[in-house]
Specification:
By secondary structure, the chain is α+β, with helices and mostly antiparallel strands. It is 20% helix and 35% strand.
Length: 117
């Protein structure tokens, strides 16, 4: 199993990703082998947020040229993570028919990258 730090490499800071952060959508560069459930678990563990959905896209390397030398840029994977901006404590039926709530507190934004309000 991969560490959460191995799954999420870095945030994508762009004009679009900054505007999407106001709606609870955060963009990250992730490991190319990471699956959506792994990305979800890594975000929930690192940032203490409730993830609603994960969208991913794979980018192939581009042909680049510098003088007579040709090469490819690195291929990478981007994930757009939508978090719950209004987290409510989850309640469920426990053994014996008692209604209980989770004690876990979720944050409404990811402040570590300056995206919070």
């Amino acid at each position: 199993m991969k560490s959460a730090y191995d799954v999420i490499i870095r945030p994508v800071i762009s004009e679009k990703s900054t505007m999407d952060a106001a709606e609870g959508k955060y963009t990250f560069v992730v490991a190319r082998t990471a699956s959506k459930p792994e990305i979800r678990q890594a975000c929930e563990k690192l940032f203490s947020v409730k993830v609603l959905k994960v969208n991913t896209v794979n980018y192939d390397g581009k042909q680049k040229r510098m003088g007579v030398h040709q090469g490819l840029t690195s291929a990478w994977k981007k994930a757009v993570v939508t978090i719950d901006t209004d987290p409510q404590p989850e309640s469920y039926m426990a053994k014996g028919g008692k209604s209980t709530q989770t004690a876990r507190r979720y944050k409404a934004s990811i402040e570590e990258f300056g995206f919070g309000q």
